[in-house]
Amino acid sequence: MPVLTIAQITDLHITTGRDPLNRLRNEQRLRQVLRAIHELQPQPVAIIASGDLADHGEPAEYEELKRILAEVEIPIYFAVGNHDRREAFMAALGGPYAATDANGFVQYAVDFDGLRMVVCDTLQEGRDGSGFTAERARWLAETLDARPDTPTIVVLHHPPILSGVRWIDPEPDAPWIAELCDALRGRDQVRVVLCGHVHRPFQGLLAGQLVSTAPATSIQVTLNLTPVDMERPDGREILVAEPPGYVLVMADQGRVTTHVCVAGDFEPAVTYTRPFGFG
Q: Edge-to-edge strand order for the sheet containing 245-252?
């Protein structure tokens, strides 16, 4: 069975002419990432965009995103984040690559050759934090139990682990994290939980499962692990124009590996001109 790959992009924050600086910058950075993904060998079978697709959740922003994605040759699946709005998103991008469950949440499963992707909805409109609930956790558990022997990746926008960047992290004892733990615990077909939201890559464990958070295609969060007073701004840098990036998930005979990738044009350092070996 050949190696199968899926690319994860996240936190696109596409906007319109109402915000010309962010419109141009975020579009250019997204296009840079999409070019890098198209040049991968082998080419991924799919791209999963794991939320914050638009900056304000407005219909015009999703139309802008559709315009940017029109030339993409790889199927793109979608999840929603706290900047998204379900009604506007589904009106523009719903269909074969985004579906809602019986309760109207953007939750669905996709089967590839030997790998399953389960997309969850953590959006609670009107708040930045996760809206993952017991209802959604039940859906996840039931969906995982339907295919217990198929290697699976789970996708959600909000990471349930701490980055150490306090101003963007969830409370470690938040009820939604416990609900997610219950849905994941003992379901050993899950190979990795893919997240976005924090605008930088980091990894950790939850309920015995690997959680991998991707860099943004838009600007990144500054890595500052010092304490912060959430009520008293101290002038610290919170966002930085580090290069855009993405995560590449590789599945090979049930084994799943994630690569954190930087998008850009880089000069080759060494080429393969003689057989590999030592001595």
A: 76-79, 46-50, 4-9, 245-252, 255-262
Domain boundaries, the chain: 4-262
- What pLDDT score was predicted for residue 177? 97
Structure tokens at 68: 């940017």
Q: What class has domain 4-262? A: alpha beta
CA–CA gap between residue 247 and residue 93 (Å, rounded)? 22
Beta bridge partners of residue 274, listed in sequence order: none
- For 237, the 3-state DSSP assignment is coil
Residue with tokens 């906007």: 15
User: Which bin fits 138, alpha (ψ -120 to 50), beta or left (φ > 0)?
Assistant: alpha
CA distance 51 to 60: 17
Least Cα distance to 218 among 244, 189, 188 occurs for: 244
pLDDT of 2: 82
Nearest CA among 40, 49, 35 for reference residue 214: 49
Flag whether pLDDT at 275 surpasses 90. no
pLDDT at 115: 96
Angle at 39 between CA 37 and CA 45, to 5 degrees: 55
CA neighbor of 65 nearest in space, from 7, 122, 121, 12: 12
